[in-house]
Amino acid sequence: MTGFVISEDFLQSENAARRTALDEDYAALSRALARRGIDSEALTRKVMAFGVAIPTWGVGTGGTRFARFPGPGEPRHLFDKLEDCATIHRLSRATPTLSPHFPWDTTSDYAALREVATGYGLAFDAVNSNTFQDLPNQTHSYKFGSLSHVDRAVRAQAIAHNVDCITVGQKLGSKALTVWIGDGSNFAGQSNLTLAFDRYLEAMAEIYAVLPADWRVFLEHKLYEPAFYSTVISDWGSSLAAAQELGPKAQCLVDLGHHAPNVNIEQIVARLIRFGKLGGFHFNDSKYGDDDLDAGSVEPFRLFLVFNELIDAELRGAKGFAPAYMLDQSHNVTDPIESLLQSAIELQRAYAQALIVDRVGLAAAQAANDALGAHLELKRAFTTDVSPILAMARLRAGGAIAPIETYRASDYRKHKTSERPPVAGTSAGIV
């Protein structure tokens, strides 16, 4: 980092102040888990191995359809974003990879970018393409669509951008491309619903054809927005059909906010696993729609139920099961670093809770049609406070026992505010 960093001495001092209490809490939880036949040490090692990618845009202040209120000390460019991502991983030890977005993260030297990231102990996850907004000097507009546009020239431009993203991803060491399009219509009759999907498939086939042999492409669906009458890839069924038609390297990406209200997302996850098409997740939370709230902040039980399906698939050795995990949030009223720290912790929490489900007891209750008994097996795991396991995992991995408290005590944001004077047109955050 070029400026202020949270020193190792400061981190150790913060941990030392909390170590005695953690040891006591960890020992107590270990005894309680042992009575249930659960090895706390094995669980801690599992948590230490769990990681989720940070989206580079997530460390900036987000926005709404009406306004964006820039935060103090937010990143001015990609290398500032790397500093913040490195700080999140240093404290949480749960975010070892970055997911960049192009053209927001375009730079002149990708070898240097990768070298800087490696120096921070970070690697690159899936690269994300952007054909849902127009850029300065862009030849063709995406106002009426991109990969499904009626004009072949517009589709060709969108295809070329995705191919460029693959090229950049190879330079960064990525192994996947995430494609989300805002294509759709706002009025009945505006678009031929069948032909729009056909055009999308034809365009995606061209992108699929240039994927490296060891790459995957994640197809991301979204119910609505910016199109409000119809969306070309609106649900998991459309995404699954497209992935099946494209081929084995095409899989479906599940964003927790991209569904109709009250949809059973964990069942969607189970279905995609069944067909070998679960590519990964964009984790966030929602109350009304695609709110992009902090993971686990509204419906932590749903997050746990998703991980319950993931652990079930892992234990069964489900075919093609290798999901990629990424946070995808818009931080409008919080410090983005704090929100990402907390979200990473909540994902680890749901993961650990899913790991301690009594699978034998659950299967027995299901086989006996014991509805409440099966439900209580899940609730017993969900209501177990695994915080000491998470904190011990962070400590052993070199992180902070209390990441947010340590971050606040360090005055990191204050230091970055003085180091990063505001600039117009920052690419930080989602507008």
UniProtKB/TrEMBL annotation:
Residues 104-292 form the Xylose isomerase-like TIM barrel domain. This is Putative sugar isomerase. One of its GO terms (molecular function) is metal ion binding. InterPro entries: L-rhamnose_isomerase, L_rhamnose_iso, Xyl_isomerase-like_sf, Xyl_isomerase-like_TIM-brl. Pfam families: AP_endonuc_2 (PF01261). Keywords: Isomerase, Manganese, Metal-binding. The keyword Nucleotidyltransferase does not apply. Transmembrane segments: none annotated. The keyword Manganese applies.
